[in-house]
Amino acid sequence: MKNVKAIVVDLDKTLLHTNKTISAYTVEVLRQCKKHNIKIMIATARPLRNTILYYEAIPFDAMTVSNGSRIIYDNQKTEYGIPHQSANKLLDTLGRYSNLRITLETGDHAYSNKPIQDYETTLSNDLKSIAQKEGVLKILVHIDDDKTLSIVEKSLTKDLYYTIANGHLIQIMNKSATKWNGVKVMLDAANCTAEETIFFGDDYDDIEAIKMCGTGVAVFNGVTEVKNIADYITESNDADGVAKFIDEEILKHIKS
C-alpha cells in the first residue's frame, strides 16, 4: 500500500451512493490522495456526458468511460467503437425482433427504438442511419424475457462481445473496449504500473481489472464473483467503503 501511485475506481454502486451522489467525505479523501501525488482515475460503464458531472468535485486524472470504448487522458482521447459493418449487421439481425428494446450509445448521445425508463434517450425508428452517421461506442439491449440473451449471442459478429450490467442490461462492444484495456492506457499515460495501482469495483466488468491490478478491492454490495476474487472487501457504496479503505489503508500510513 505504501507504493500506491494510482487509484482506479468504478462509479455506480462503487464510488457513488445508490442515489448517484458522492459524499463530502469521499471527495475530501480523494482530494487528499491527489495532494500526495496519487493519481485518481475512473473506469465506468457510464458515457462521458454522465460522468463529467462529478469532475468538478473530483478532477480525475484520467477517465475510462463506456466500458473502455472511450478513454480520456492528458487532453487526448482513444476510442474503440463498434465498426460500421458490424453495427449494421447486428442492427439488421436485432431489428427482426420487434419486441427488443435497443439503445445506441454514440458517445455524445443515446438513441433508442422504444422509451427506456430512467435513461434519457432520443427515440428513433432508424437506428442504422444514426449508427452510420455518428458511429457507435455501445449497443444496449434490455433483457425483457428469457429469449433475449440467446438472440443477442447468436447475432454477435466475431469482433464484438457483451457483458451484463445490473442483471438486466446487455452491453455490446468492440472486443478491444474493456475496462482493463482502458486502465492500461490510462496507467501508461501516467507512467504508472498495474502493480502500483488499486482498483475498486462491484460488477462483472470489473473482474479483469481487479485481478490484474496490484490490489483489487470489492465493495460489500458487489456481486459474489467480484468479492470472491478481490484481495479485500470494503464496506458498501452507501457506507463510503472506497473512501474508508483509502483513508485507513493508504492515507493514515502516509501521514504517520
Account of the 3D structure:
The structure is a single chain. By secondary structure, this protein is of the alpha/beta class. The protein has nine helices and 14 strands. The chain has helices at residues 11-15, 24-35, 84-94, 127-134, 148-155, 179-189, 207-212, 224-229, 241-255; strands at 6-9, 39-43, 62-65, 70-73, 76-79, 102-105, 110-112, 122-123, 138-142, 160-165, 169-174, 197-201, 215-219, 232-234. The strands form two sheets. The protein has an eight-stranded mixed β-sheet. It has a six-stranded mixed β-sheet with strand order 8-7-6-9-11-10, covered by helices on one side. Helix 8 (224-229) links the parallel strand 13 (215-219) and strand 14 (232-234). Helix 3 runs antiparallel to helix 4. The longest helix is centred in the last third of the chain and has 15 residues, at 241-255. The chain is elongated. The model has no long low-confidence stretch (mean pLDDT 94).
Please render the helix and strand layout as text.
Blueprint: E1 6-9, H1 11-15, H2 24-35, E2 39-43, E3 62-65, E4 70-73, E5 76-79, H3 84-94, E6 102-105, E7 110-112, E8 122-123, H4 127-134, E9 138-142, H5 148-155, E10 160-165, E11 169-174, H6 179-189, E12 197-201, H7 207-212, E13 215-219, H8 224-229, E14 232-234, H9 241-255
Parallel strand pairs: 1-2, 1-12, 2-3, 7-8, 12-13, 13-14
Antiparallel strand pairs: 3-4, 4-5, 6-7, 6-9, 9-11, 10-11
Précis, in short:
The chain contains nine helices and 14 strands. By secondary structure, the chain is of the alpha/beta class.
